[in-house]
Amino acid sequence: MSNCKIDVDTSPEEYTSLFEDLIKKKITHVDAGYRKFKIIPTKNLFSGDEKCWGVTDFDRCIIYLEIDVDDDTVREVFLHELTHILFELIGLGGSLEDDKGALPPNAIPNNEYLTTISSRMLMLLMRLNPQLYKLLI
To answer: Which of 37, 42, 99, 124 has the fewest CB atoms found within 10 Å of its own CB?
Structure first.
């Protein structure tokens, strides 16, 4: 997260309907079971030199979401960032650059394994955040 550029100076009139819904329902955090992550609508979000639509800062427990995208896109990006959190929860953290949390070299995840961990992660998210889940679908 150290090479992200963030401008959090945004106003509610710039928000898509997802952000409006989050404000109406007073949803400011996502409960991941082991930590709560603050949701911050953001303008001009970059990862390094690349423009991006969402970033999760695991050290600070913050999900940054770009406001300058359409509602369908921000919903998909939000779910994408939530999936990063859920994979981190089960020990599959890290990135392509650092290989931290990667599967052992001989491990080949099969359909059953991926389906089981993904469905359990989604159930955890839905049960801990029912109002948020209703907004996303």
So the answer is: 99
Contact call for residues 54 and 45 (beta carbons, < 8 A): yes
- Mean pLDDT, residues 56-75: 92
CA 45 – CA 81 distance, rounded (Å): 14
Q: What is the pLDDT of residue 8?
A: 55
What is the Cα–Cα distance from 73 to 47, expressed in whole angstroms?
A: 18
5, pLDDT greater than 80: no
Reported pTM: 0.76
Provide the CA 108 distance to its chain's centre, in angstroms: 25
CA distance 94 to 84: 9
